[in-house]
Structures are given as C-alpha cells and as structure tokens.
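Lab notebook page, bench 4
Experiment: in silico fold of construct C2
Operator: M.H.
Input chain length: 711 residues
Purpose: comparison with the prior construct
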Amino acid sequence: MEAVFLTLLNRSISAGWLVLAVVILRFLLKKAPKWAVCLLWAVVAVRLLCPFSLKSPLSLIPSPETLSPYTMQFSQNPELDSGIPALDRVLNPTFQKAFTPSPYASVNPLHIWIFFCSVLWAAGVVVLLLCACVSFLGIRRKVRESIPFRDHIRLCDAVSSPFILGIIRPRIYLPADMDEEALEPVLAHEQAHLKRLDHWWKPLACLLLTVYWFHPLMWAACILFCRDIELACDEKVIREMNLEEKKAYSHALVSCSRQQKRIVACPLAFGEIGVKQRINRILRYQKPAAWLLIFAAAACLATAVCFLTDPEDDVFSIRIVIPAGSEQEFHYSEQEISPAGKSITLSCGDGLGDTEILLEPTEEKGTTHGPAYLTPGMPVKMEMASERDAWFRIGVAVSNPTEEPLTVSVEIKGVQVRVAGPLPEAAGLAAGGQEPDHHSPGAAADPSGADTDAGSAQTEEAAAAFALEQAVRTAVLEHNASSRTDCDLVCCDFVLLGTENRTAASNAAVTVYGWALYQEYNLSETGIEDTGGSHLPVALTFEINENEYHLKDYWEPRDGSYFVPDIRSRFPAELAADGIDSQKFILPQIQNCYRQAVEYGGLDADAIISRLLDAICEPSSSSVPRDYIDAHRLEYRELTFYGGCTLQYCFRRFRQGGETGLEGRIMALVCEELLQTKGKLPADAETSETGQFWYDTLYAHAPNLVEPYLP
C-alpha cells in the first residue's frame, strides 16, 4: 500500500503543475469557447490516470518523481527532487534533519510516516466512497416515486431542481411543478449534457478526486471543471439564440438555481453552480472569432505536449576545470563521452560563454572532432556516425586570469558518460560487511607481493581476488558515471555477500552479490558535503578470461513495491535477507568512503570533529545529553560517519583527562555507538554522569578496543 501511495503522490505532484497551467490558461482563454477549457481538464485526467508517460525535450514538468520510493524508504540520506534546485536547497536540509535514519535505529522514521500517510490516504478514500454511495442512494430514494414525461425524462415531486442521474441509462428528472416557460430551456441544457457525455465525465472527476483527495489542487480542479462543463453546455444551447431567447434561458436558470454543497456523487443539475457568472456570459455571449478558435486549439495541443510528457533524462553536465592564471588554450573534461547515436548535441552550461569546443579521442578508434564554435543559447550538433563505441574528452578554449581555479560545464545530449582515468576515485571490497584495510583511496593489497613460499596456488588466488575487486570497483563507478553531478570526489564501497561460479566449455563466469555504495563529495575546510549517490544491492556477472573479468550484466532491483520481490527472485535464498536489509552495512560503508575522502583531500579531521561537537553542545535549557543529540541529529550523524577519525579524536581527549562536562558525555555516547559497547561494560559506567568515567572504565575492561586509535 505504501508503494501505491507514493506512486499516486508523485503523480499528483506532476499533475499539480498541469492544474496550475490550466488555471492560468483558463484566465487567458476567458473569451474562448469553454469546450477548449474542458479539453484542458481532460488532459489533467489523462495525466492522473495514465500509469506511464513519454519523454520529451518540450516537457515543462520539473520532476516526474519528486519523492523517489527508494530514496524515501531505503536511502540513508532521504531528499526531495522537485526539479527546481533553489527549492530543493531550501527544503532538503529541513527534510533530512527530520527524517534521516539513525545508523543504529531499528526502524527508518520515513517508513513509519509513509505507512501512516498511506493508511490515512486509504481511510480517506473509503470515507469519500461511502459518502458518495450514501449520497447516491439518497437521491435514488428521492426519485423512486417518479412518473414518465417523455422518452428518458421523468417528473418527481421530491426534487426541487432539474438534474441528470445515471451513467449507463441516464435519465433527466424534473420537478413536477416546473414552470412551463422554463421547461424547454431546461431540457435543452440537460440534453446538451447528454450529447457531451458529461454524465460520464463528472463521475470520473469525482472518482479521481476520491483517489487524490489529499492534494488541494485536485479539489480546486474538480470545482472549476464542474463550473466549466456547465458554461460549455450553456454555450452549446445559446449558440443560435437571439437576445429574447437568451433572457428566457437566464430566467429559467435563476428559477432553478440552488446551492450545491456536495461535490462527490452530485448529479448534473441545471442551476447547480455559478449562476451569476453563467447569466453574465449568456447575455454577453458572442460567437468567437476564427483566430480565437485556432489559438484555443493550439493551447490545448501545446499543454498536452508539455505536460503529458516527462523531461528527458539523457542530458549530462560535463565539468571542466580551468586552472588559475591559464591563458586561452584547450582544457579537457574529467569525464569521457561516447556517442549513443549518429550525432550529439552540445550547449553551454554554467559559467561557459563563447568558446571553441572539440572532442579529443582517448582511444585509437576515435578521431578528433572540431574545433566548433559554441555560443550560449545556440547548441552545436556534431555528426558522429562513424564513432560508435569510441570515447572522447571534451575540450574548451577558455582562459582564466584569476588566482582561483574556474569551473565551467558543457551540457551534452545523446551520449554515454564514464569516468576518465585521472579522476580521483576510491573503492573498497569487503566480505561480510567487514571494513577493508585501505591506506589510500581505491587501494587494495597488491598480489605481486604475496609470500612466494605459500606456493603458486595462493599467488594465483590472490591475483584473482585482486582482479575481481578491481572489476567490481570499475563496474560500480562506471555504472553511476552517467548520473554524476559536479563534485570534487567520487568513491564507492562494496560489501560482498556471496558469489556464484559457473564453468562452461568455452568460458567461466562469476556472479558477485553485494551492497554497492556510490558517493559524490565536495571537500572543504568545514568538512565533507554529500552531493549525491546511491546505495543498492546489486548482482554483477563477469566473464573470466585468464584472470581478467569482463562485465556482462549489472543488475539492480526496481524501486517501490518491486524492490523486495526482485531481490528474493535474483539473490540466492541464503543471501536475500542481507540483500534486503539496507541498514545493516550502510554505516561502515559510509565510514570507508569518509576515510578515503579525508585522505584524498588532506582534511583536518580533528578540526571538523571539534566543530561538530561545538554545534551539538550549543546552549540549551536541557541537562540531558540525549536532548542535545536529538536537537542536532545531522551533526551527530556526521560524527558517526567519520568513524575511526572520531574515535581517535575522542580517545585523545579522554587520554588527556578532565572530560567531565557535557562535551565529554557526548563523546562517550558517540564512541559507545561506534564501538557497540552498550551493555558490555559495568552498569555504573553506562549510567555515569561524566564521559571521563565511561572512558576510564572502558580502558580498564577492554584496552584492546582503545589502543588501535591512540597515537
């Protein structure tokens, strides 16, 4: 049910942009025929009903999936993707502060909220359906005692205003005491409803409102739609009337007017809403000019194209760093591109003005393309028919006379993207969730130095393990390269859950199962900023040829309700539980990536950790350490991410002694979580009022836990 709710929520957000567009167009098309506005509302219905949408460069939907099911339920860093960067920068810090799961929490708080909201949504649907049924049955009971008037028209003493009831066999019900002068205008209006099939469209609108009741714009859309179908019917009836006939029609409308407070399941009634507005339009009605009809039709078509499609996701932003003080010469991208079709399209991105641009091959199969001249707002198309499977770096001729490096970007469409050789990368491959021993980003034990006395078999085994680790690292980085944002460092970490080997007559293959963490960071003196990434269970299948591993399949589960079934069907039964548990390995994997970032960037981890502790210990009226942690969850979580660096800093402080204040207690709590010692020390240590006493007790009982982190 949670997956269904998230799907409908995302669909309603996308449709909300369309509703806003229709409201604006409704104002601009004030003098256009109302059938055009009704067509616009039909576009809204299609957006709400259709389970899929096409991609289009003309789409004006900012983001087709504002709340990703995976991000909401499984990500360590949940965030919104509204498609409007400025809005995301405002909302995401607050959102993450409220909903980021604690690394040691048994339940993700978003799981609880999504479950609660989905139950509330389902309850709302049931309540509205019950109200609709009660309303419908009440009306049916009222018209039970009616008499035929002509054809499908009936007279009833229990009704006070004309209306249509029924979908398959609709009938027009009239008050038995209706004025004869009003009879013909009323019947003409109701017959127009039937010809326009409004007795189908209005129940459909009510049904959609029942499903999407949680979105305020859907209520506004339903109300405006009901008004517009009445206005459209009025126009259809009065199109050929003279002024006197219009006055008679207006008089009939006033005499049959009534207040309608219910939207769900209310029938098509003659004087149901907007009587004053309808009379004004009736008396002032003039046939629209031909140009207005053409404009209205074009507006409907443009709205459908722009709002029934989703934005294309194959446009990449390629970053190029221009060194400080460089004169105008070509500088190249850190990423490589390969044409996906017969041509590619390049355009200026952030910070890039008029410049020459060229494509420099990185392999022998490619040839240099360019230079071409690139101007902001004027994309350049390059024919690449003979360059399939070739890889290129993008070069731009930009000078930078300043004393700081300049970063520019090129927007490019129609390509694949991978990480270039010089790009800083990091990766780790660990078995069973154990932290590997890395000494530098991306480092692994080189099998060339294996003890030769252990025999050639062990050497070959070490070489194969090393080659597999490198193959996994490369596969994870290249798979995620297409979604890479502008950042200082990309790194990955892999927890190996298990492998399956297959040997055939011609070749051998291995499938690796595990959790792949891909991270993108910006590095500064204030710390590490997470700019993007993913954490997913994967199955990587490699063909083996003389200890070389060639990736044949990179499998990931689908989002939402498919996530768990996909893992159970793809992973071996004994590995499926670990493949589903997203929280089991995430903290040590993030700590691996943070350690690699600290080493690569040469960051002062002590200064960063000190600032985080200062932020957590900001003045408060509470004397309970946990209250400070709860008020600064993001900073506390950051302390756990620094892992060994945090332990080294805290143990050094404890070694100096005197940590009897609030900061000492906070350091004790974070060390307790990182070492997982809760319940393993004497009770008086865990309930102590000072962090210093906790550390002294820990060192006395388990010095082996402390000494690896002391100088």
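Observations: The chain has a mean pLDDT of 81. The first helix runs from residue 2 to 28.
Next step: discuss at group meeting.
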